[in-house]
């Protein structure tokens, strides 16, 4: 299971909607992996971190040096396969909107396993 495979799955959904594929970004991947690790360590699925300067997805992406004009993230916990996490996100209007938003051009994905043995997922979208 890899971030690259998750990105391929995102792009299959986008292709079905006649949208351009998302390009992988190492900086967005770094932001996503850091947040997935944080969720796994705290055992809490959240869009926020209680760390000064890293509270929001925008702050986390900015810290990587990625210059963005729009940014969003999808998070999830407990799904054991890419198909499960993508189904969860596509069945949630806000998460689906992020995946199918034609304004986003780049993506980074992080996956981390917590001490609770759950997988924590984070996808960061930007332009």
From TrEMBL:
InterPro entries: CAP_dom, CAP_sf. It comes from Rotaria socialis. Signal peptide: none annotated. Residues 8-124 form the SCP domain. SUPFAM superfamilies: PR-1-like. It holds the Pfam family CAP. This is SCP domain-containing protein.
């Amino acid at each position: 299971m890899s971030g690259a495979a998750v990105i391929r799955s995102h792009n299959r959904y986008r292709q079905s909607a006649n949208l351009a594929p998302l390009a992988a970004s190492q900086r967005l991947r770094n932001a996503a992996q850091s947040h997935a690790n944080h969720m796994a360590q705290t055992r809490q699925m959240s869009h926020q971190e209680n760390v000064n300067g890293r509270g929001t997805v925008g702050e986390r992406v900015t810290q990587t040096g990625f210059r963005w004009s729009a940014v969003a993230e999808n998070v999830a916990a407990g799904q054991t396969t890419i198909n499960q996490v993508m189904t969860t996100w596509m069945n949630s209007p806000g998460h689906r909107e992020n995946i199918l938003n034609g304004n986003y051009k780049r993506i980074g994905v992080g996956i981390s396993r917590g001490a609770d043995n759950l997988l924590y997922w984070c996808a960061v979208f930007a332009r």
